[in-house]
Amino acid sequence: MALARCRARYQAATLAALGDVGHARALADAGHVAEGCALAADALTIGRRYGSERITGRVREFRASLPHYTSDAADLDDELTALYAADGADTLFARAVLDAGGELVVIVPAEQYRDGLPAEHHPTYDALFNHAADVIRLDHTASTSNAHMAASVRMIDEADELLAVWDGQPARGYGGTADVVNAARERALPVTVIWPNGATRD
Q: Is the CB of residue 105 less than 8 Å from the CB of residue 136?
């Protein structure tokens, strides 16, 4: 019963937020850019709270429809930058380790890895990188799926246990979570899979 209520609340919040993004676009088209951006920022907050890529994706599309440099979108740009800081289990876990007083070991897959990240994520990457207790650089130039998988294997070799945020489905591309889990299990590394009941991958 409680789960049904949570799902209903999630669905209602998602629909409302998606409606807000549509209204934000209408406002911007009518020349009320600041008001539209404020409404989109509210929707983004809901998207972050519920982990909804549908909402955050719509907000990104809305922002992309506006001029690249506009003071009216300054607050929304800040929110989107913060979103990149929260994107991905790797970043969340790295922050949790640091917040708990732990040490962070960074494995850089390739020389061009940072260049391949969204520009909005560079400040977050740099901040975590600068807090690393140790940095391991692999001997790759291009940031390819092979380089990423090599970094995952190196991580496995350094680890005592793997915590995987994974829905149990096959990887969408080489080096995805399923491949990393399989590599860990092949090496007899303990694996703990984390996936909320009822959650789905977009």
A: yes
